[in-house]
Design a protein that fits this description.
Helices cover 36% and strands 22% of the residues. The chain has helices at 2-17, 92-96, 99-115, 132-141, 184-197, 225-237, 249-258, 271-280, 288-297, 305-328, 348-355, 360-374; strands spanning 21-25, 28-30, 36-38, 41-45, 48-53, 63-66, 71-74, 76-81, 118-124, 149-153, 156-158, 180-181, 203-206, 242-248, 262-268, 283-285, 331-332, 392-395, 409-414, 417-421. Strands 12-11-13-14-15-16-17 form a seven-stranded parallel beta sheet, with helices on both faces. Bound molecules: zinc ion. Zinc ion (ZN) is lined by residues 80, 82, 124, 337.
Length: 423
């Protein structure tokens, strides 16, 4: 009996000490820190990167994945996604779908995004009465499904009649809106507490009106300063950061003053708001992709006509504002506002950053190193360095020469596991 247990122990020991390592070879490595390394060899042991080296140092017996003339990059991070939303019939689709159906749809969406190179997502609240996106995260983290790392908010918190409310039905209709409706500091505190109780690790506030919702105006500020203060204070007590959807300049200023960590969209930002963001270190996440997508692909979509029209009318001034914000020194993260488009579309965001005056390297760093810092996960993700999770993607060409290469990700590894390998 003792002999058998000793043998089992020896076997287990061998399994642990001789667990196979993986060596990933390519033509170039953009490591996320700003460096480009030629002929890199990345050594992975289980889920982590243990060395970034060269061919001489490949451990004996390692599994070799040779990606030839491909370029390796850190897995991409999208700071603004909505896996439970659709563009087919926005808000009415919310009423049609149960939370269970949204969980299934959302799981498919996040898996498709992973295959497109997005290894980490921050959900900017979702249109769901339940907590579908939290359930998706739990199932992935338990190992039931392969999927990206997910952070974020279960819901977007909105005032009555705001961007998270349904404003096109008669008052007799008692429905539950896509957003979480809260009015006054007390209700907002309770909403924040509920979000955290059921798994949100970010709070999402719709501080101003929105482009997409019927019956509200993105130029209006919806939350009072008192309500914003209550939300941020309550979240901070639990060490949970706040992201603020804000188009109107006044809403941006109020949110920044209240202490939010990121401003989402920021379309009508003015110089005073830029200065305030620089002073407070608040990040800006402009989400160009959603405007591009609506403009290019959804013309004639009745439920989104308002968003398409406002988007077209304000496009020029929005780009001018963003260019100025970047030039002035406002910190940019990167998010797309993905509402369920073909997953490769999300990488359109990079090209728009380059149009603002960023180098391709800076744009890539926004979606990797910088986004990891915003998430406070810079010790785990965002760069290809020793000790980080092996979240690594590859593209065929050189994204520093053609940033659109990021729309054609050929190889994806998450936590050391290969989920896509196209030759
Ligand atoms: Zn959004």
């Amino acid at each position: 009996m003792r002999k058998i247990s000793a043998l089992i122990l020896l076997f287990l020991f061998q399994q642990i000490s001789f667990a196979q390592k993986t060596a990933l070879l390519a033509k170039a490595l953009i490591d996320g820190t700003g460096k480009v390394i030629a002929n890199p060899v990345v050594i992975i042991d289980s889920n982590k990167i243990i060395a970034v080296t060269n061919k001489e140092n490949i451990p004996k017996g390692a599994i070799i994945i040779n990606l030839g003339d491909y370029t390796l990059l850190p897995g991409l991070i999208d700071m603004h996604v909505h896996p439970n939303l659709t563009t087919d019939d926005y808000q009415v689709d919310h009423l049609r779908g149960s939370s269970a159906s949204k969980a299934l749809m959302g799981l498919k969406n996040v898996q498709d995004l992973l295959a497109a190179g997005w290894t980490t997502l921050r959900v900017a609240g979702d249109g769901d009465v339940g907590y579908a996106n939290i359930e998706i995260r739990k199932a992935i983290n338990k190992g039931m499904f392969v999927g990206p790392h997910i952070y974020g908010a279960a819901h977007y918190i909105s005032v009555t009649g705001g961007g998270g409310d349904i404003n096109f039905l008669s008052y007799e209709q008692k429905i539950i809106a896509d957003g979480l409706i809260a009015d006054g500091p007390d209700e907002i505190r309770k909403a924040v507490r509920n979000e955290i109780k059921y798994g949100s690790d970010w709070i999402k506030l719709l501080v101003t009106g929105a482009f997409m919702t019927a019956g509200d105006n993105p130029n209006n500020v919806h939350f009072s300063a008192e309500e914003l203060k209550a939300a941020v204070e309550e979240a901070a007590r639990r060490d949970v950061p706040v992201m603020a959807h804000a188009h109107a300049a006044e809403g941006i200023k109020m949110a920044v003053k209240a202490g939010v960590r990121t401003i989402e969209h920021g379309s009508f930002i003015d110089e005073e708001a830029m200065d305030l963001m620089i002073q407070k270190g608040t990040w800006l996440i402009p989400t160009f992709s959603i405007h591009l997508y609506f403009d290019e692909k959804l013309d004639g979509n009745a439920s989104l006509q308002k968003a398409i029209e406002i988007g077209r009318k304000t496009k020029e001034s929005m780009y001018t504002n963003m260019r100025q914000a970047f030039k002035k020194g406002v910190k940019f993260g990167l998010g797309t506002d993905d509402v369920g488009w073909p997953p490769n579309y999300s990488a359109r965001e990079f090209g728009e950053y380059v149009k603002l005056g960023m180098t391709p390297m800076q744009a890539i760093q926004c979606a990797t190193k910088v986004n990891a810092e915003i998430l406070k996960k810079e010790n785990e993700i965002g760069t290809i360095e020793v000790g980080k999770l092996a979240d690594i993607i590859a593209v065929k060409g050189d994204p520093l020469k053609d940033i659109s290469e990021l729309q054609r990700v050929k190889f994806v590894m998450i936590g050391g596991k290969v989920v896509k390998n196209e030759k």
